[in-house]
Amino acid sequence: MTFESLPDLTVVAIPLYILTMSVEVYAHWRRPRPGYRGYSWRDASTSLTMGLGSLLVGAVFAGIQLAFLTFFSQFAVIDLGQLISSGSAAALLAGFVVLYVLDDFCYYWFHRVHHESRFFWAAHVTHHSSQYYNLSTALRQSWTPLTSWIFYVPVVMLGFTPAQWAFVHATNLLYQYWIHTERIGRMPAWFEFVFNTPSHHRVHHGANPAYLDSNYGGILIIWDRMFGSFVPEQDQVVYGLTKNINTFNPVKVAWHEFYDIGRDVGRARTWRERWLYAFGQPGWTPQGRDLSVVTRENAPL
């Protein structure tokens, strides 16, 4: 299988996004449910704009990302990628299973760090800025991809090629699309125990104090269970940030937290304060952590 020639699956899936969002909009209109926010056209259009912008930014930086991961691949300590390229069905299956688990493990730590450190949170906060939770929210993506690549270096260090990883990672992101909905309640217990689901991910997008810093998994929820960040859905979820930005301007949605970091660093009195304002826990202040300044999960996530 030649992965280098495969198209970007997140782009190929655009017709699926349109179809499923249309179905969800119809479902909210035809059968509204108490407590479900449904859609706001201004909010959804902002999410779609952020998604298109993310694709354009990703295309611009694709070559740099490839060069970055290729550089580290030369230091691989083992060649697990040969399992996928060997031609053996059993080896192919084993290779994909290992790669999916490894990619999801790296995604967990990418996601967690992007909630625990303010600089990384500034790149990720875009995705949490909507006060609605529907399939369009899944497309509200960052315009700052450079903060993510370092977390996937272990994949190429174990011998998987950048192209193999890119294919598997795209399917990981596609999996996460369907869990951005209020229309699906709970899945079977065994599925909820192992996999990320709409219920688990609603919690992740919640601004409720009990829901902050939880459920970082991509496909699998087992990492959260293993590392103590799992929280089940119980109370009604309040979506958005602990301090909502209340704007539909895509530029502000994309960059507002970087602006705030610059403002706080500029008024800091010591180098320690400057460092912690930029890279400390979101919401950090010299007086302690201020959750009203944190943007939703600006807590250790």
Low-pLDDT stretches are 293-301
Q: Strands of the biggest beta sheet: in what spatial order?
A: 1-2
Count of extended strands? 2
| Percent of residues in β-strands | under 5%
Oligomer state of the chains in this structure: single chain
Amount of helix: 40-55%
Number of domains: 1
Would you tell me the overall average pLDDT? 92
Question: Radius of gyration in whole Å, from Cα?
Answer: 20 Å
Structural class: mainly alpha
Shape: globular
Would you mind describing this structure in some detail?
This protein has 301 residues and is mainly α. 53% of the residues lie in helices and 1% in strands. The chain is built from 13 helices and two strands, in the order H-H-H-H-H-H-H-H-H-H-H-H-H-E-E. The chain has helices at 9-12, 14-30, 41-73, 81-85, 89-116, 118-124, 153-157, 162-177, 189-194, 198-204, 222-227, 250-267, 271-279; strands spanning 284-285, 288-289. It has a two-stranded antiparallel ribbon with strand order 1-2. A hairpin with a 2-residue loop joins strand 1 and strand 2. Helix 6 runs antiparallel to helix 12 (250-267) and helix 12 runs antiparallel to helix 13 (271-279). The longest helix has 33 residues, at 41-73. The protein is globular.
